[in-house]
Amino acid sequence: MVRRITTYLKDPVKAAPLAVFRILFGCLMMFATLRFVSGNWVEKYYIAPAFHFKYFGFEFVTTLGYYTYILYAITFVAALGITIGYRYRLSCILFFLTFTYSELIDKTYYLNHYYFVSLIGFLLIFLPANSHFSLDAFRNPKMAYSKIPRYNILVIQLMLCIVYFYAGLAKANSDWLLRAMPLQIWLPSRDYLPIIGDFFREEWMHYVMSWCGMLYDLSIPFLLFYKRTRLFAFGLVLIFHVLTRILFPIGVFPYVMICSTLIFFDASFHEKIIDILRKALRLRGKLKDTTTLFWIPNAKNRFLAGLFIVFFTFQLLFPFRYLLYPDELFWTEEGYRFSWRVMLTEKGGYVQYKIVNPENGNWFYVDHSKFLTDYQEKQLRTQADFILEFAHFLEKHFQDRGIKDPEVYVDSYIALNGRLSQRYIDPNVDLTKINDSWKHKDWILPFNDKIYGF
Amino acid sequence: MKLKLYKLIVPFTFILLGIIVWSCSDDDTDGSGSNNDDFNRQVMLTNWADNIIVPSYVAFSADVDALKVASDAFELSPSQDNLNALRTAWEEAYISWQSVSMFNIGPAETAFFRSFVNTYPTNSNSIDNNIASGNYNLQDINLNDAQGFPALDYLLYGLALTDAEILEFYTSNSNSSNYIAYLSEVVDRIDAITDQVVSAWQGNYRDTFVNNDGASSNSSTNSLVNDWMEYYERFFRNGKIGFPAGVFSEGNLEAEKVEAFYRRDLSKTLCLEALDALQAFFRGRIFNGTNNGESLESYLDFLNTMKDGDDLSALINDQFNNSRLAIQSLDDNFYQQIISDNNAMLAAFEELQANVVLLKSDMFSALSIAVEFNSGDGD
Lengths: 454, 379
Prior knowledge:
The structure holds two protein chains of two kinds. By secondary structure, chain A is α+β, with helices and mostly antiparallel strands.
């Protein structure tokens, strides 16, 4: 059995699907980088804010100020390198490092699809996506292969399957399925859209969309894997992502997913794409890659095998870490990020910081807008780790302003998925006495409702 | 193998459809979260426009006209009697303003109505300089703190300690003509911008407002409720009480930031007027009437939102009433109150604060109104 699996993984298959994936991914990343810069988001997200919320364990990643533009320039050039397959491995490493660095500067801007891009960037470092139809292969025929071990393509496919399937599992909860939340809040606000807009006022439509969304996410990996259902599945992919693009501001992510799922198609399809590209670019001369890259049990390949096993074990287990925490995941958000939980909650929130000077009992409120952007404040309202981090920032700030040992309390409420609001953080806890950790935050008050499911 | 999988598509589709049908027929059994939202927002918008907003504007406009008449009379003859009449007209118009300040939507928003009419504390240095030089343009947004009611407050009460000395600025002062001119230009500016806003509402904007009855973030309901909430927090709670009481200034009292700083015993009156207007809007109270039309209150009642066993709308009204009691217990003169006992101001602030949770978190959530803000991508 193990032998059959390893043979299957080692089996040489055509390299074209990976080459096309490389080109599409590179192009989209160039576009995404340009879009980010031209939207003035580098300035707005990384340069203007006076304070940045750090990822736990990545506090050393600081903003580079105006040099952040250089970071983005490198990301762009690296994405170009990936696209044309020029100094491919170096390009991948640079892309992964610069892209991930800028994501790590401030967790305010965490999005699952940025995490996905980072992961794909990481995986590409170890995949021979430049072995076919690339500048590297053209310049150095030793690097050119028409066939590569199958696992190289499976790695990308598996990553996509995890994203979809886990996103589907996360939707299998009572709020999503039985209350049509939060779509019931979001869809009516899109009622101005032509044709479909009218339906968004109807409650049944919210249920249809919720259920279809979950079933789509859960089934699409399988539908894409089997040849018979593949075309149908791709049709669904198109409909689903175009619809999400229309409904929600999710940037280039729909296009990334649409392009990525093409990797499930047969090599002949990708060879056609490459043919078209060659003609369009007027590339003459033959592809020099006629050889096959065989998997041999050398140290490098063994190391890679180990790496992928560790990587995917982590990917499969990490999203379930929420099980180790008490109380409701949607409420505490402990184990929420990096788990493909997308569009699951709508939180109305309210938070007000109160600083107390224990020496004289004086207290005052903090005007957050002096320190935070609207975006940061929105994230602050609903997430405990943000609330704690900002409390520590305020402690430091008011120490510098002459209060020896300020106490920081918060008055905070959250309305989760259409419920009435409930107090979130224990108002009697001085947050300066608490440090963030992997442990459960027992200063979050318990959620007084129950959500069933994943 | 392949054939079997192909066959699976049909049952799969049926299961999918079956689940959809089942899930749709299921919604009646789950009363807790599903808002069967058949509330007619247009009826509410019509009540807001025809019974509250436009009548409030018309009343305010009439008071501004009276202010203009009084100011013209004072301009012709700057006597003590005419000063008194002008002050009374200013006071009435300022009180009347509290009923329209919250409607920062449409023409009011584009004209920066609130900013031009009631930015305080007023910049007395800027006013003095403008008068001295005679060189200014009140349409300049940078001069928003040198005009409007707060500037009149300064010009009518703040130039000197006694009335006799104040009158001298308009009579015997070497620059008296500039003082007279500035005073009348400030009044004219309020008058002009008010006319602009009122005539827009009486013209096409009323229909635009009422017909934009959807639930998108640009719909009238969502926009106005967001604006209303911003007014409640920033301009009402913080502006009238929080900022002067030092709530946001690290405990340093900033009593000089009270509304109507130079005519200090008016600050409580203005605050209570604003509170009444906010609650009247929440309840859909017909302007100067006793009946309520469709409103946020009736919308909440329709959705029958319950919190801790009570009606959310009742909780909100109770909190408005608690706030009123706390404010009524304050000195007429907020400046004096802050100097002598700021804790009472802070207590009033806490009461106003308590309603923010009910309004911004619970009411917004119940009505499915998203708190507006612009950002980049989501996921």
